[in-house]
Amino acid sequence: MNKFLGYLLTPVFYFFFFLTLIIFQPIQWVCYRFFGYQAHKVSVDILNFFLTYCQVFLGSSTTFRNEQDIPVDQPKIFVANHQSMYDIPALIWFLRKHHVKFISKIELTKGIPSISFNLKYGGGANINRKDSKQAVGEIIKLGRRMKEKNWSTLIFAEGTRSKDGQLKPFQVGGIATLLKVVPNALVVPVAIENSWKIVRYGSYPLSAAEKLKWTVLPPLDITDKKPEEITLELENVIKKAIGQ
Fold this sequence. Notes:
By secondary structure, the chain is α/β, with parallel strands linked by helices. The chain is built from seven helices and seven strands; from the N terminus they run ααββαβαβαβαββα. It has helices at 2-35, 37-53, 88-94, 115-121, 132-149, 173-181, 227-241, and strands at 61-66, 76-80, 100-105, 125-127, 152-156, 186-193, 211-216. The protein is globular, with a radius of gyration of 18 Å. The chain starts with a helix and ends with a helix.
């Protein structure tokens, strides 16, 4: 049934999803060029509100649970599992007060309406995976911005998307680099469920009527722990949260 409905609803979803991206491209440009970071951020937040709830055109539900009292006056490193590109809009929208930034492939800074502009000018780290020196340098710069502005970074620690929802081993590199620069950062795991199902049949049809869920888990106590220990603990708590 999910696949059958997907054949019918996917064109409607894509129409509104890409229309949103096109509409917000000039809005972002005006906000950034004439009014600066804060106005640009508001435009990005609103963009991701609409992208998040485009899921209604697939008949899918969006549930974001955050029962944690996470301070806004401290840098955070949110660490999540990664199931599809549709993980991201809800994270930006629902965690908007924490100024969440991403570590992204530099290739994504070109050619995608709204998304490329935000990645280029939104304050995240755009890395060249073939140039480790450049990648580490960009992550260090991001860490300094976190420290200066109390921003947050969200890391998909698996390094790539899980096509079947099964958690892949977490990689320590990005977490370790950020913690060197921002040792006082609060480390917060986020568990994502069912977004992989949207694309289980590929880009067409998308799977309809899925129950998408994001859960912010309790921050870790990282006192006297090595990055490898922290990363393993993050992997284990997220694995438990998604029932694996």
